[in-house]
Design a protein that fits this description.
The protein has about 130 residues and is an all-alpha fold. The chain has seven helices and no strands.
């Protein structure tokens, strides 16, 4: 049953991202690295560094940017909406893993079932530090 859901999640992600993720990720990675100077006060923060690394190596930048809306909300919009606390970190990490819809409009966020809860939380910590 788990294999079925994993395969379904992969198909949904591939379809929603338009395919060709390899090129998009290569182009998106420098953009992720360029966010470090904008948040120089966070550049020595281990949560910031690890989260930035995870965001850059996953497909996040296909649908999100730091400062402007793409398919999904800008990370700075998410940081402005949610207080940086354990409850919000857990809730947002769950949304990354399970997917969701309605919070930011009609376009659903695809599930990322391949991410561990710890990695998803680390990504959320990075995003919330962009406030």
């Amino acid at each position: 049953m788990k294999k079925y859901f994993a395969a379904l999640a992969f198909i949904v992600v591939a379809a929603s991202c338009g395919g060709g993720n390899e090129k998009k990720e290569e182009k998106a990675t420098p953009a992720a690295a360029s966010t470090a100077p904008a948040a120089s006060s966070n550049s020595n923060n281990p949560d910031y560094q690890k989260g930035l690394e995870l965001v850059a190596k996953n497909d996040c930048l296909t649908c999100h940017k730091v400062s402007e809306k793409l398919t999904g909300p800008a990370y700075k919009e998410v940081a402005a909406k949610y207080e940086n606390n354990d409850a919000n970190i857990s809730m947002l990490a769950s949304k990354i893993i399970k997917g969701g819809s309605g919070t930011w409009g009609a376009i659903p966020m695809t599930p990322h079932a391949n991410l561990s809860e710890d990695d998803a939380k680390q990504m959320v910590k990075y995003i919330l530090l962009l406030k």
